[in-house]
Automatic annotation (TrEMBL):
Protein name, UniProt field: 2-C-methyl-D-erythritol 4-phosphate cytidylyltransferase
GO molecular function: 2-C-methyl-D-erythritol 4-phosphate cytidylyltransferase activity
Gene Ontology biological process terms, A to Z: isopentenyl diphosphate biosynthetic process, methylerythritol 4-phosphate pathway
UniProt site positions, description: Transition state stabilizer: 23, 30
Gene giving rise to this polypeptide: ispD
Pathway as given in its UniProt record: Isoprenoid biosynthesis; isopentenyl diphosphate biosynthesis via DXP pathway; isopentenyl diphosphate from 1-deoxy-D-xylulose 5-phosphate: step 2/6
Record NCBIfam families: ispD (TIGR00453)
Length: 230
C-alpha cells in the first residue's frame, strides 16, 4: 500500500541515490541493489515515509534510471524523482532545487542508509525545529584512530574521545542549507561540512546503529541480519 505523507508536515527529505556503489562491487547502482528481495532505495524511502513530519521526499536517481525509479517507488510513497549528478553533493543540490520555500526543514539522507529508523528522522527534525540550524546524528568512534603519512607511517594516535562517526539524515533549516550549497566551493563528503564552512553551528544528536551505511559487501550481510532482528 502507498504511504501517505503528512500535508501538514514541515520537513522535506532529500534521498541521494545516484551513486555507482563501487565499493560494493559489480551489480549496478547501489540504491537498486537488493536487500531481502527489495532495492535498498525502497527500504530507505519506506522508512522516510513512515516519519510523521515528512511532507515531501525528493530522490536523486542515476540519470539513466529516473523513470525506472519513479515506477519502483510509486507503490511505496509519493516521491519526486530527479536525475542526480556526478558527486553526492551535486545530487543533493539538484534535489534541493525541488523543495518549495514554505517547507522550513530539509533533511539530507543516503539511500545507502536503508535501515534508518523513522524515529531517528523525527529526532533530527525535532532538534532543527527547536532552533538548531544544523543537526547531525552521530555515534562515538569505537576503534583507536591513527594519523598516517604516505607509506602508512604512523604519525600518532588521535584522541578518539573528541571524534564522532557521522550519519544521515542530516537536518537543516531550509534557508541555511540552500545558502550553504549556493556558496559551496568544493565537493565535501557531507552537507554539514558546507554549513561548517559558512561558520554556522552544527550540533550532534545520538545516531543509531541501524542507520549504518551499506558500503562494502559485508554490510549487505549485516543489514540482512538487522532486518531479521525480532
Ligand atoms: N554522484 C552521487 C554519489 C553518491 N550519491 C548517493 O550518496 C549516498 C552516499 O554515498 P555512498 O554510500 O558513497 O554511495 P556511492 O557513491 O554509490 O558508493 P561508492 O563510493 O562506493 O561508489 C548514496 O545513497 C549514493 O547513492 C548520489 O546520489 N550521487
Ligand atoms: C553523508 C555521509 O553518509 C555521512 O557519513 C557520508 O559522508 C557519505 O560519504 P560517502 O563517501 O559518499 O559514502
Amino acid at each position: 500500500m502507498t504511504a501517505q505523507l503528512s500535508a501538514r508536515g514541515d520537513v522535506a527529505v532529500l534521498v541521494p541515490a545516484a551513486g555507482a556503489g563501487l565499493r560494493l562491487g559489480p551489480g549496478g547502482p547501489k540504491a537498486l541493489r537488493l536487500l531481502a528481495g527489495e532495492p535498498l532505495l525502497v527500504h530507505a524511502v519506506r522508512r522516510v515515509a513512515a516519519a510523521p513530519s515528512v511532507r515531501l521526499i525528493v530522490v536523486a536517481a542515476p540519470a539513466a534510471e529516473v523513470e525506472a525509479v519513479q515506477e519502483l517507488l510509486a507503490p511505496v510513497a509519493p516521491v519526486t524523482v530527479v536525475a542526480g549528478g556526478a558527486e553526492r553533493q551535486e545530487s543533493v543540490a539538484l534535489a534541493l532545487a525541488q523543495v518549495p520555500p514554505d517547507i522550513a526543514i530539509v533533511l539530507v539522507h543516503d539511500a545507502a542508509r536503508a535501515l534508518t529508523p523513522p524515529d531517528l528522522i523525527e529526532s533530527v527534525a525535532a532538534a532543527v525545529r527547536d532552533g538548531h540550524p544544523a543537526v547531525i546524528p552521530a555515534l562515538p568512534v569505537v576503534d583507536t584512530i591513527k594519523e598516517v603519512a604516505p607509506g602508512e607511517i604512523v604519525l600518532g594516535t588521535v584522541d578518539r574521545s573528541v571524534l564522532r562517526s557521522v550519519q544521515t539524515p542530516q537536518g537543516f533549516r531550509h534557508d541555511v542549507l540552500a545558502a550553504a550549497h549556493a556558496a559551496a566551493a568544493d565537493q565535501l563528503t557531507d552537507d554539514a561540512g558546507l554549513v561548517e564552512k559558512a561558520g554556522l553551528p552544527v550540533i550532534c544528536v545520538p545516531g543509531s546503529e541501524l542507520a549504518m551505511k551499506i558500503t562494502r559487501p559485508l554490510d549487505l550481510i549485516l543489514a540482512e541480519a538487522l532486518l531479521n532482528l525480532p
